[in-house]
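Hi team,

Filling in the usual template for the complex we talked about on Friday. All components are listed, including any nucleic acid strands or ligand strings, so the model treats them as one assembly.

SUBMITTER: L.P.
PURPOSE: interface mapping
COMPONENTS: two
RESIDUES: 596
SEQUENCES:
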Amino acid sequence: MLLGGMTGVMATYLAHLNNAPATLFVGFAAAFIVSGAWASISGLLKVFFGVDDIVSTLLLSASAAFVVFYLVRVPFRSPTSQNAAVLGSVNVPNDAVFPSFFGINGVFPFAVVCAVVLYFVLTRMKFGFKLRVLGNSRNTAIAYFGKGTVDRLFVLVTFLSGGFIGMGGMAMVSAFTFNIVAGASGGAYSAGGFTNSYGFIGIAIVFLAGLDPLAVIPASIFFVALVIGGLGLLVLMAIPSALTITISGVTILFVSARLPVMQRLRTLLRRKVVGV
Amino acid sequence: MAFDLGFYTTLVGTTIFLSAPIAFAFLGVMWGELSGVFVFGIEGEMLLGAVAGFLGTLATGNIAIGLGMGLLTGIAIGLLSGFFEVTLGADQIIFAIGLLVIGPSLSSYLYGSYLGGLGLSAFSLSIQTFQNVAIPYLSNIPLIGQFFNQPIIVYLMYILVVLTHIFFYHTNLGLKIRAVGMNPLAADSMAVNVYLVRYLSLVISAIFAALGGMTMIMAQTGFYSDNVTAGRGLIAIALVRVGNWRTQLTFAATLVVGLLLSLVADLQGLFSGGGVISTTFPYEIFATLPYIFAIAVIGVSYKWTRSNQPASIGRPYKRD
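RESULT (copied from the run log):
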């Protein structure tokens, strides 16, 4: 996400297009391609070496933070940013700022459209069917589609997922922050950094939504409401915003136990109804 | 930089010194994962332990009480993860992500509110760190002697690494824990209490994580800053894969990463200080070296060796 945002800043800054839609398109496309390529390294590692993808993505995201920090420190540093501990990058040009419709920033409808498109791809198309078979059982997928298809799918999926994550970073940049802030300690995991742990929260949102792209929309609104409420607390009662991220973290802890607890409740209810 | 004996002696000393927190973290990861539970949240556990130890030491002025506070935090986190991951059977990856989100933010909040209560600014507080203790005779050996001229917590690390290895691979109880990790159903039928074993392993794992976080502060920096662990927990997770869940291999890999980190510190000092090349040189490249090393070795080792990964890892056990 950090990398995608950075790429977005770089691309829109370098492109010097005076046309707003073209600038936005270039920014999002660059973010998609670069962070997708970074993420597809883990897919390639899984295909060629059998590396556990959880481990490789953790390591890759940690090292991406260093790359971004370099990019912020040297080539794209804002001229006004001199504090060595927290550096800011250049701002995106005005053309790359997402326009607002009816008081809602255009990023939100854009994300909703993405989710709906993903829903159709995943549930109504052959490609989505293949993906869901692969997700359920790798061996079944190999038996049905062949190992070559499955390997290509792995790389493609990591590319696509990294691409969407990068677009998330670009959305942050083009709608809210307008630049990237990188701390001296690497940035990706520090509280109050650029991404605000949104990448991690995103994984929890997907789990809360039960892997349904349409259910992702209310789930993410729920988490963002937590964060925005935290910002309100920051203003009203001077509670640091780090605490609100903690609260989302605690929510994630409870979300993690959602399925088994629901199952247990369901069995309890059934027992009551049947009277066993 | 002169490449003489003094340079290498310092290098060896720094290597041991920097690998100590990673060694504690990898012990934590091994304790959890050999019993069949993912410990990806170790970075958050380390940060919470670190902030607890730091604030405890700061408030009481006694490093032993601070250490105790950190250990208590570790026990609390271990019990919490035991309740979620063992009793409730929660999704372990999501739980770990929760810890990864909570760790940095809660530690930063606690530190910030403590500072705010005192009305002080950051970086103004530091605690007394552990002093180097030289073991007589052994520390006089050239080069190798640096292993025995370290803070006392590093000696604790040596002892715990050896004890963990003996425990897991040479005792009956360790075999039972590994059996729980491999096949909890079979272990349960052999009258091993799976829930108890996993609870104990998670508590011990969180204690090790807290120790690792406290080592960062009490033996190295002396003051707290946000994100003080700087990815050490992630490296530890990868190192356990590098070492294929074997203590001795993982410890060797830890030393290699410690060497890389100390070289990185040297090189960054050389290049960022405007010494050799100007400040625009991308010295962050060096900081990614441990990650690249870990990914490369994991790739090669997964290809060429039989994986020793606990088979039931990530799946909560439920008695039907």
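MY TAKE: Chain A is about 75% helix and 5% strand. The CA atoms of residues 1 and 165 of chain A lie 5 Å apart.

Thanks, L.
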